[in-house]
Structures are given as C-alpha cells and as structure tokens.
Automatic annotation (TrEMBL):
Keywords: Repeat, WD repeat. GO terms for molecular function: snoRNA binding. Coiled coil: none annotated. WD repeats lie at residues 1-34, 35-76. Pfam families: Utp12, WD40. Belongs to the WD repeat WDR3/UTP12 family. Gene3D superfamilies: YVTN repeat-like/Quinoprotein amine dehydrogenase. Residues 89-119 are annotated as: Disordered. This is Beta transducin trp-asp domain-containing. GO terms for cellular component: Pwp2p-containing subcomplex of 90S preribosome; small-subunit processome. Residues 184-273 form the Small-subunit processome Utp12 domain. InterPro entries: SSU_processome_Utp12 (IPR007148), TBC1_cilium_biogenesis (IPR051570), WD40/YVTN_repeat-like_dom_sf (IPR015943), WD40_repeat_dom_sf (IPR036322), WD40_rpt (IPR001680). It comes from Nannochloropsis gaditana. Residues 89-98 have a biased composition (Basic and acidic residues).
Length: 301
C-alpha cells in the first residue's frame, strides 16, 4: 500500500493490492480517477517534485510512469463508467460458473444477470424508438404550424400510429416495457441507462404520473434513479423544471395512494373485529337451572 500527496494540494494518489492507481480529493474524500496498468499488486509509488509525473512499481516486475494531461475530467461520467464496468465484470464472473453444486448456482445466477442485461438493452431500445418518434412528432408540428400561418393552405394529415411502438402513445409504450421488468431486473435495467435516455425516461414517468397510471411503479423507478444519480440529475439545468414538476405531482399522487392504503388497512381491521366478535362464545343460564348452576355454551351467529 502506498499513498502520496501532490505538492501544494489537498489531492493524493493511492495504490495497493487491488492493482489500481487511484486519485482522491482529500477535502471531500471522493474518488476522482482510477487508473489501470499493473498486472499485480502495487508496492511502491513516487511523485516528481511538481506533481507532473508519477511512477509506480509492483509485483508484476514493471515500472509504470504516469504523466498529467490537460484533459478535463467529469466525476459523474467516471462514476457511470465504473458502475458499468463493475456490472459487466460481475456478469462475466457469474456467467462462467464453477464445477459441482456451486457451479450450478453460479450458472443460474449468471443466466439471471444476462437476462437482466437483455432487459436493460430492450428498455434502451424502446427509449431510442421513443426519441425517434419524438423527432417525427416535432417535424409534424412544425409543418402544421407553418400550414396554419398560410391562409387557404391545406393542413397536413394527422400522423398515423407508429408500428414500432405497437401503435401506442409514447408514455403507454414506455409503461408496456416497464411492466415487463420484474423485481431486480428493473433496477439493473435502470442502472445501465445513459444520461440522454434517462432524461427521456423521466419525461415519460412524469406523463404517467399526470394520468395516474401505475403510481407505485413510477415511484420505484424515480426513487432508484434519484438514489443512484442524484448529483448528476440535480446538476442538469435542463431537468430542473421537470424535477420540480415531478416533486409536486409525485407528492400529491403518493398522498392519495397512502390515503387509499390507510383506508384499506382500517377496513381490514374492522372486518377482523367483526369476524372475531362473531366467533366469540359466551355463557347463558340453561332452562330450569339456577343462574349459578349448569350453563350451556351459545355461539353468536
């Protein structure tokens, strides 16, 4: 394990048994960059006086020299790339499996992850189709607006349903594909979405919430996206109006959803009490018997 600070900064490099060279921000304890180059553990590291050159050596009997470049680094993009690499590595390892019973379990897990990848690709393809359809819709609206500005000009015919979208509106087409994702497949599919398709997905979820369609499913998708990519989403200016709309709309829908669940719970409790009272047994005096004498059991109907 080796740690070296850059002169005059609060940044440092670390290296160790994971074969990686990592660049950190010491103020926020945030990982900025990860470099791969060694085939074994990294044992030693040295920084040139000005911090422009870094040298590492390790168990693979090699010395790597790293030079600073002028390329800009976007931390969120690096996070997204690392998540995708971790996901792909996990799929590859579990897909290979091992011998015996453990191998069978690994094989099943690998097949499940491969199916998750396929579902994610299908969701991405569906969003690509929606984006292309949005472009066609914008062109149609431009032609329609231009025709209305010209007196006497014929209006273009209405657009025919898109067969690639199963002749459904865009938000219903999105809902169709979201319903196909069950359990953890939904989160895995959302995890691999690129940023531009994530914007389109948020707009589709907002439309579904406006029409009170699958509020619980929309809430699950939004919660996972905000929990995983909250910094990236909050720093996108284009999404701020949409996020504000989602916050208000989602809160109102969830409030109604919560009230409905609470009413159902109270109704079930009332029904339970009525059933228990109906089964309750009590004692009454028998005919010709004293009150303290023999008694018989009566069940309330």
């Amino acid at each position: 394990m080796a740690v070296r600070f850059l002169p005059g900064t609060h940044s440092f490099f670390s290296a160790g048994k994971d074969k990686l060279l990592k660049y950190w921000d010491a103020d926020s304890f945030e990982l900025i960059l990860t470099h791969r180059g060694h085939a074994g553990e990294v044992w030693a590291m040295g920084v040139e006086g000005g911090g422009e050159v870094l040298a590492t050596g390790g168990a693979d009997r090699s010395v790597r020299v790293w030079e600073r470049s002028d390329d800009q680094v976007f931390v969120e993009e690096e996070r997204q790339r690392e998540l995708e690499e971790m996901f792909e590595d996990g799929v590859g390892k579990e897909g290979r499996g091992e011998e015996g019973e453990e191998g069978a379990e690994s094989g099943r897990a690998g097949r499940q992850h491969l199916e998750s990848v396929k579902q994610g690709e299908r969701l991405s393809e569906a969003l690509e189709v929606m984006r292309a359809d949005n472009g066609l819709e914008e062109e149609h609206l431009k032609f329609l607006k231009a025709a209305r500005q010209k007196p006497g000009a014929p209006l273009p015919p209405p657009r025919a349903p898109n067969p690639l979208m199963l002749n459904l509106p865009p938000h219903r087409f999105l809902l169709f594909h979201l319903r196909l994702l069950k359990g953890p497949d939904l989160e895995q599919a959302l995890l691999v979405l690129p940023l531009d398709l994530m914007h389109l997905l948020l707009r589709g979820l907002c439309r579904l919430l406006r029409e009170d369609m699958e509020v619980e499913l929309c809430w699950r998708c939004l919660l996972f996206l905000f929990r995983t990519h909250h910094r990236l989403l909050l720093h996108s200016r284009d999404l701020m109006p949409l996020l504000m709309d989602l916050r208000g709309g989602l809160r109102e829908r969830l409030k109604g959803f919560r009230d409905g669940v609470a009413m159902n719970v109270e109704g079930l409790r009332l029904l339970k009490r009525e059933v228990e009272e109906g089964k309750q047994a009590f004692l009454v005096p028998g005919e010709g018997e004293e009150e303290d004498g023999g008694k018989k059991r009566i069940r309330r109907e």
